[in-house]
Design goal:
Uridine Diphospho-n-acetylenolpyruvylglucosamine Reductase, domain 2; Uridine Diphospho-n-acetylenolpyruvylglucosamine Reductase, domain 3; Vanillyl-alcohol Oxidase, Chain A, domain 3; 3 domains; 8-stranded antiparallel β-sheet; 19 strands; globular; binds flavin-adenine dinucleotide
Length: 451
């Protein structure tokens, strides 16, 4: 039945269409997380904007829900929609900088590396994320934690414009002047409102960074974690810290504190001296770097592994978190780790009303990242991540996690808890205006408010 309808889509578009029987469908279907097994009825790679409009209208006529894929990194599997149309923007890459206005217009399929390469050529940068192969679309629409978090806020805070194809096929140019409520919603409300085709960011100058990793081991590990929390409590805006806890080869817990300092090496070294000189610190590779070097501090994690992430946005850093990190690291397998991304500075000072993003009051994003190879380990790995999330849940600001790190089986209650109650109400109204039948439901879903 759908086969005939697909002919209509072929007739009115120029892009590539893949159905399950087609050569290339399986390769196109596969996402970053091997646990994301959803099978779209049709995968569509648009050639241009009219293609997207036509595909959205075609899905409405065919009664199909729509999923959107940018970089394909959704660990929750949102860009692997089962039984729906997948609009795959992964080939929509390219970014144009306006150096005088200090802005960049990026096609929605860009990876962070595209954005960084374009802006770096002008000595500029956008706050985005820390893994250069991640897509800017999903990352920005649900927050965006980067090495510029404390000095510039979340990636969504720097979003100053977008182009969006809504559920009825209307093309909306979004900025403060034209669609201020939608701009607010796109700053954290995820892919709920339609297909975002282009994103515009405000840029900032980043002449120098000082970054790297400090590694800790041994009996003073707990104290090193608490020292990290102390350093964070009085950290200037230039400093961003992320703490990673894993199990070392000898089976004991280990941590690294990953550092991004925006500025000269002297200032950076002074900011982390208490950590670099801590008795448990056995290795440091901190060094001066430029923005692109800082952005490649983390090596991409390969495609095709099995992954399950779960965590909380938390309201305080205390000894219970240090204990949870040590216990979970002791129980982790080779590839899995617990991550604490610390939040302070401008990320906190930007008014709540600027963005729909619901994690601004959190002092950290705390998530267990279970990563493994074989299906035989599914149960144990998922249980490990859930145990960590349970251990830190008393610290949670509202019971929700960072939506960009959502678990595969995220409940509706955890989605709601990721937003402030006032924002949730506004988001549901916005959803009713732009997507009243919830056609875009493969996301941290905001159901449309009843009329
Ligand atoms: C290895 C790795 C490292 C990461 N590092 C960071 C990090 O440093 N900081 C951080 O904040 N996050 C990070 N993340 C999380 C990341 O932000 C999310 O996985 C995000 O969804 C990735 O965006 P994407 O476009 O690649 O995702 P996709 O899987 O392509 O999309 C995810 C969802 O986002 C929505 N979406 C995406 N593009 C569009 C669009 N154009 N229009 C409408 N909706 C859209 C859709 O709902 C889609 O289903 C990381 C993830 C991984 C796997």
């Amino acid at each position: 039945m759908l086969g005939e309808a697909v002919l209509d889509l072929r007739r009115c578009t120029r892009g590539e269409i893949l159905e399950p029987a087609d050569l290339g469908y399986e390769a196109a279907r596969e996402a970053y997380n091997a646990m994301a097994t959803g099978r779209p009825t049709t995968i569509f790679r648009p050639a241009d904007l009219p293609d997207i409009v036509a595909a959205v209208r075609w899905a409405a006529d065919s009664g199909l829900a729509i999923g959107v894929r940018g970089g394909g990194h959704s660990v929750a599997g949102h860009s692997s929609p089962d039984g729906a149309l997948l609009i795959d923007l992964s080939r929509w890459r390219g970014a144009t900088v306006d150096p005088a206005a200090r802005t960049v217009d990026a096609l929605a399929g860009c990876r962070l590396m595209d954005l960084d390469a374009a802006t770096f050529a002008h000595g500029l940068a956008a706050p985005s994320g820390t893994f250069i192969d991640t897509g800017i679309g999903g990352l920005t629409l649900s927050g965006g934690i980067s090495w510029l978090l404390s000095s510039e806020g979340f990636a969504c805070d720097a979003l100053i414009g977008a182009q969006l194809v809504a559920a009825d096929g209307d093309v909306l140019e979004v900025d403060e002047e034209h669609e201020p409520e939608l701009l607010w919603g796109l700053r954290g409300g995820g892919g709920n409102f339609g297909v975002v085709t282009r994103l515009r960011y405000a840029l900032t100058e980043v002449p120098a960074m000082f970054g790297g990793r400090l590694r800790f081991h041994g009996s003073a590990l707990r104290d090193a974690i608490l020292t990290t929390f102390e350093v964070e409590a009085s950290a200037p805006d230039e400093l961003v810290l992320a703490l990673v806890a894993w199990r070392a080869e000898d089976g004991s817990p280990s941590i690294s504190v990953n550092v991004g300092w925006r500025g000269d090496p002297e200032g950076g070294m002074a900011a982390v001296r208490a950590l670099a000189t801590h008795p448990a610190c056995y290795e440091s590779d901190l060094k001066p770097m430029n923005w692109l070097q800082q952005q490649t501090l983390y090596q991409p994690i390969p495609y095709g592994l099995r992954q399950y992430w779960k965590g909380h946005l938390i309201g305080r850093l205390d000894e219970s978190l240090a204990d949870a990190l040590i216990s979970s690291a002791s129980e982790a397998t080779d590839e899995s780790f617990a991550l604490v991304e610390l939040i302070h500075g401008k990320a906190h000072r930007i008014p709540e009303t600027h963005a729909a993003f619901g994690g601004r009051s959190a002092v950290a994003n705390v998530t267990a990242l279970a990563i493994w190879e074989g299906a035989a380990d599914d149960e144990a790995e998922i249980a490990w991540a859930r145990r960590f999330a349970d251990r830190v849940s008393p610290l949670s600001i509202r019971g929700g996690g960072y939506l960009n790190y959502a678990e595969l089986d995220q409940s509706a209650a955890r989605v709601t808890a990721a937003f402030a109650p006032d924002s949730w109400d506004r988001l549901q109204k916005l959803k009713r205006r732009l997507d009243p039948t919830n056609r875009f439901r493969f996301n941290a879903n905001i159901p449309p408010q009843d009329a």
